[in-house]
Design a protein that fits this description.
alpha+beta; 470 residues; four-stranded mixed beta sheet; 50% helix
Length: 470
């Protein structure tokens, strides 16, 4: 069987850690073939033929392996974990590469997983096998530097060097520049409805390697494994594949270019699209025009019930909203995001979760630090202080429920400095636990310093840490 120059199967441990450390850092995509060289003054790569060896070069696959291991994630339908992938590749890569070269490799169906949405309903994800994640990651690393330079400056989702905070900042700028009305476009089950023919036609504009195009198409058509039954798919890109975010940007790039051609101010983060205009009438016209373009040209659907027009201060982006103070547009946390964070804290402070207070506080700290690392972009410190007050009241309620018995409550309150007669009165109260948690007596028994001593990192402290770093 013929193999490329990078197929060093004579080495017993092709992907050994020592060898990986010897691989020199390189730009995304690994080694690039001469066919990808840029011509002088040419902003984008020329048509990318002969990419197969770039994708499956030793250096590129080794880098993809490290990335898949680092990302972790749940196993696919075959049950193999990322921790087992390296050993599997050490043994089986020669035969995997041979089947890829011969065109006989068949991606396995993805495992369906349903994730609850904060606002209700579920989001369906497709979890590929770790072996398929490795191959998709290798493809992604080569295709990203080919496609990314052509994408719009107003596209921020899943792109190197771009972030959700940059998208929010761009939106804030448009609001401040007179975009007082926003057109919010919601795609109806975007990742489930992408037309394979339309998508592959757009990929083929830059990729001329037929073997690579055929492999990408096979990943799109791999199907879904649900409760042991294979479900064939005719459209969509499974969320959960490393390739899916890039393919979504490829699919929606024509929409970005159309918005630019029409001179619109817009921000797109994956399938979240906001267009900023000056008047309500203009916003309604834009929504009608863009809806027709999306359905006619992209073969996608607009969810008319969730799309709409609104004042820019009432419809935010990626969990953030906007408000004006002293003539300056500022960023706040949207109400839906605040409801979601409270729902999570309710679960972490639920009595049904029978863990020690130390374990509970450790889980809360991890969540609060992660949440604030993202939402500290908001310029509303008072919101974080209010969340702190609410969190401590939840903890006091949780502690009160854990004490349970009257005698236990009396002993605990006395130990915490409350006079015995007051402790006895409150231990026998008929008030609900939430009211007791907000009472002066329990606030005095379990003050802010008490939780600080137990190691609680509150929202205000986490907010301050992130803002100082920024």
């Amino acid at each position: 069987m013929a193999h490329g120059a990078d197929d060093d199967r004579s080495q017993p441990t092709l992907w050994a850690s020592a060898e990986e450390k010897a691989v020199k850092p390189r730009r995304p995509g690994g080694e690039r073939s001469p066919s990808l060289a840029r011509e002088p003054n040419t902003p984008h790569p020329v048509r990318a033929d002969g990419l197969w060896e770039d994708v499956f070069s030793q250096a590129n696959v080794a880098r993809a392996l490290r990335r898949v291991e680092r990302n972790g994630g749940a196993p696919g339908p075959d049950g193999m974990t990322t921790a087992q992938l390296r050993a599997h590749v050490n043994v089986h890569w020669p035969e995997i590469r041979a089947s890829l070269d011969q065109g006989t490799y068949r991606p396995q169906p993805v495992r369906r997983v349903q994730i609850p949405k904060p606002g209700g309903g579920v989001r369906e994800l497709g979890v590929p096998t770790v072996q398929d994640r490795l191959i998709c990651q290798a493809i992604l690393q080569v295709l990203t530097p080919i496609f990314d330079p052509m994408f719009s400056e107003q596209s921020f989702g899943f792109r190197p060097g771009r972030s959700a905070h940059q998208a929010v900042e761009a939106a804030r700028t448009f609001v401040a520049d007179g975009g007082t009305w926003v057109v919010a476009v919601d795609f109806d089950r975007f990742f489930d409805r992408v037309n394979h023919d339309a998508l592959m036609a757009r990929v083929a504009r830059k990729v001329g390697d037929r073997r690579l195009l055929k492999l990408i198409r096979r990943y799109l058509e791999a199907g879904i494994m649900a409760e042991g039954v294979l479900i064939e798919v005719q459209e969509g890109t499974p969320q959960g594949s490393p390739l899916s975010p890039l393919l979504s940007n490829v699919m929606l790039d024509d929409l970005d270019k159309e918005l630019e051609r029409r001179g619109h101010r817009f921000v797109r983060y994956a399938d979240d699209l906001r267009i900023y205009v000056g008047t309500r009438r203009a916003a309604e016209r834009v929504l009608d025009g863009i809806g027709a373009f999306v359905e006619r040209r992209l073969k996608l659907r607009i969810n008319r019930s969730k799309s709409g027009v609104a004042p820019s201060t009432r419809r935010g982006l990626l969990g953030f909203g906007f408000f004006t103070r002293d003539g300056v547009v500022k960023v706040r946390v949207e109400q839906e995001a605040l409801q979601a964070v409270k729902a999570r804290i309710r679960r972490l402070t639920a009595r049904a979760w029978g863990v020690s207070m130390a374990h509970r506080i450790g889980a809360l700290n991890r969540f609060v630090l992660g949440w604030c690392a993202y939402f500290a972009w908001a310029e509303t410190p008072s919101v974080f202080a209010e969340l702190d007050q609410w969190l401590r009241r939840r903890l006091r309620q949780c502690q009160w429920k854990q004490w349970k018995r009257i005698k236990t409550r009396v002993r605990a309150l006395v130990r915490l400095g409350i006079k015995r007669n007051q402790a006895w009165q409150w231990a026998n109260t008929r008030r609900g636990s939430w009211r007791v948690a907000g009472s002066a007596i329990l606030s005095r028994a379990l003050p802010n310093a008490h939780w600080k001593d137990l190691g609680l990192v509150g929202f205000t402290e986490a907010y301050g840490r992130v803002r100082v770093v920024w």
